Amino acid sequence: MIRLDTRDADFAARFDALVDARRESAADVTRDVATIVRSVRDEGDAALRAFTRKLDRHDLDETGWRVDAAACAAAFDALEPELRAALELAATRIRAYHEKQRPQDSAFTDAAGVRLGARWRAVEAAGVYVPGGRAAYPSTLLMNAIPARVAGVDRLVVVTPTPDGAINPLVLAAAHVARADEVWRIGGAQAIAALAYGTERIARVDVVTGPGNAWVAEAKRQVYGVVGIDMVAGPSEIVVVADGANDAEWIAADLLSQAEHDTTTQSILFTDDAAFADAAAAAVERQLSTLPTQAVARAAWEDNGAIVLVPTLADAMPLVDRLAPEHVELACDDPQALFDRLRHAGSAFLGRHTPEAIGDYVAGPNHVLPTGRRARFASGLGVIDFMKRTSFLQLDETALAELGPATIALAEAEGLPAHARSVALRLRTNR
Amino acid sequence: MIRLDTRDADFAARFDALVDARRESAADVTRDVATIVRSVRDEGDAALRAFTRKLDRHDLDETGWRVDAAACAAAFDALEPELRAALELAATRIRAYHEKQRPQDSAFTDAAGVRLGARWRAVEAAGVYVPGGRAAYPSTLLMNAIPARVAGVDRLVVVTPTPDGAINPLVLAAAHVARADEVWRIGGAQAIAALAYGTERIARVDVVTGPGNAWVAEAKRQVYGVVGIDMVAGPSEIVVVADGANDAEWIAADLLSQAEHDTTTQSILFTDDAAFADAAAAAVERQLSTLPTQAVARAAWEDNGAIVLVPTLADAMPLVDRLAPEHVELACDDPQALFDRLRHAGSAFLGRHTPEAIGDYVAGPNHVLPTGRRARFASGLGVIDFMKRTSFLQLDETALAELGPATIALAEAEGLPAHARSVALRLRTNR
Asked: Which residues does the annotation say bind Zn(2+) (chains A, B) (predicted)?
């Protein structure tokens, strides 16, 4: 963990270094992934089975390729009532939030008599990748699948690896809650390739979303254009902007909630109170000592954590914009005033009673968010990622007479005479 | 050109072949582009100058790196009045259409007392690529730059190659009309790398859009994630759905307006009238013979063109959906009825008086559209491509008491104790 103070002489250089630090895996898996993707595209299920046997150590023909709906329902029914209720609360709230994202169609007729507008439709099929192993999160399934369902996709496909044949019942339960149509026991680059190109068993989809390791991320990048994808995700991060009136224990827990995800995650505290900075740092140490995930969280905090002292919280906002973090907490009395000054963040958590973890599960907004400074240009996952827009245009003779001559002039200037002719013929001028 | 009839025994197989035909360049430029991108990232302007000298055959230090605003204004002033007016009409209408695309912020408080919503902001800087040479279209500059301006970007950068040092005055005039802030005389993969990573002279941008050759497309793919990009574009295509009451000459001109772009473009006519199919084919031949762009248009039509006979126009719509074309014209008396049956298309042109060319220039909707069946999942370029959404959330103590327990249950089930703790501490339960 580093400590910075905007008044230090070397602050600018050290903050630049913090902004530019790359935490993403440098492993070049491009070629390996290309081989896997090509194999699955060309050989279909046989390649899927072979890669699964090699990488996940089970034989799909023996363990089964799919988990059926009854098994997902049974997994849900077998949960503790408290957990069942929590999953349902999460799904209900995520659905409600995303229903407000459904885009409006538009249609209008302008002064020239041109009727024009845009129409949104859902893609036919969406594929959601849910990681296996440590990061097999049912919440991730809900956050990816529910926006697809709200968009109105006809077919919702879940793929999830089951290493050594072991199925995570929480993921199945979430698939039941999200009403997934198919659940396939495949993972890695081979699963992404199967979704993009289809195999004998698995029909191809139109959009692939969901987090994964370096192989999954590279596979998504390689099939981008064959299908739509969500943003390629990197390590997670949180920025907490907090004044001295906060409870240092609360803020320390927030910093650690990000750190415990992975050793590459980043937690940064901005505060205008040096004593609070000390207290928060001490609280982090104290909490780490009893945290079951302390090995991961300690490495992330020590390697990537930072506390930045600023003259006022408002001074922090341009610095936060440079980081363009995935999550930002604004823990102060007037968080809206700070939020109004902020331009780049994936998701903002306002006030002292809004820990980021609430947004990970049940609040409603999506937890699939741009990382690695991509909030400068990217948005969290949403309903429109599973939809597309068709623009439309309708002219009558009068409208064409009004717009036609300018079209002909531009088409001719661009050296496209057939374009000009298609208009000129209709204007009944002889060209 | 092939002719198909849905009643033919081999129709399904032949239509499948039409759908699956790849018209995109198979040239693998991945490694060459990676070398260029790395050089520009590491060596900046020196690499830009070297690549431009080699590939565009002029020395930027001698010919100049930038075109200033005065030169763009002068290029505009020097145009024929008719062309000047046409560019201004186009810009005005494109702006008006895209202003309606500006997304609405949302904020609401739900029954649990949670305040939540989403806020849209423009990216800081956008870079627009405008090809040089044959495809140096001022309309492309307007279609990319105006949505960025409407989104509210602070800085709008145009890059365009000037092979052998020759500047296209129409592009400069369009840069003036679109109020570009900077115009740089660079192209190819090196220009995309400069926009993504920045150089000594050129500050990096956040989003890069615009068409280009295989090198430009691959460079965009390689910098995707460092910056946002628009969809990687392939060869253009048009589907015309027309009944026998159309003027065959009009429809032939529409088919050729797509064919003249490039030998890889595709024009397909669906009709329910065999005699009209013959008349349209004959009209295409007749028009080709006098078309200045006939070499290109003839190759495209002969290699990729098709006429498909269907029992009724309604029967064509599922077939059109399989093609998911960039452009579709619905030339009949009740085009809306057909449009209602259509799901996948980049842009639709309704009725007999709406040739696609109108949409290329002055109608208002964007002409940067998904190609190669990507309309299944992708949309045309729009204002939101230059904006991003920040979701936000604010809970008070009461709301946290309502949502907290479910969050704790899910966090513990996922093995994330610091997540649970960040909520539990605030609920003042001792965990």
From this structure: 258, 261, 360, 419
Task: Tell me whether residue B285 is one of the annotated catalytic residues.
Answer: no
Q: Are residues B222 and B283 in the same domain?
A: no
| Residue B267 annotated as binding site | no
Q: How is the beta sheet containing A66-67 ordered, strand by strand?
A: A66-67, A182-184, A155-159, A125-129, A207-209, A228-229
pLDDT digits (tens, 9 = 90+) for A288-344: 999 999 999 999 999 999 999 999 999 999 999 999 999 999 999 999 999 999 999
Query: Are A180 and A202 part of one and the same domain?
Result: yes
Residue B280 pLDDT level (bands cut at 50, 70, 90): very high
Task: Count CB neighbours of A214 within 10 A.
Answer: 18
* ipTM attached to this prediction: 0.95
Residue A409 is nearest to which of B86, B207, B419, comparing CB atoms?
B86
Domain with B66, as residue range(s), is 30-229
What is residue B174's predicted lDDT score, i.e. its pLDDT? 97
CATH number of the domain enclosing A205:
3.40.50.1980
- CA gap A47, A40 in Å, rounded: 5
B101 annotated as belonging to a binding site for a ligand:
no
* Cα gap B344→A229, rounded to integer Å: 18
Q: Is B327 a catalytic residue?
A: yes
Cβ pair B316, B308 in contact under 8 A: yes
Query: Any binding-site annotation on B213?
Result: yes
Kindly state whether residue B390 falls inside one of the protein's structural domains. Answer: no
What pLDDT score was predicted for residue B223? 93
Residue A23 confidence (pLDDT): 75
Assess if residue A388 is contained within a domain.
Answer: no
Same domain, B367 and B409: no
pLDDT score, position B61: 97
CB A238 within 8 A of CB A326: yes
Is the domain of B79 the same as that of B101? yes
Task: Give the one of B260, B350, B376 whose C-beta lies nearest to A393's C-beta.
Answer: B350
- For B144-156, how does the pLDDT look when each residue is reduced to its tens digit (9 = 90+)? 999 999 999 999 9
Contact list in A for residue B372 (CB cut-off 8 A) is: 225
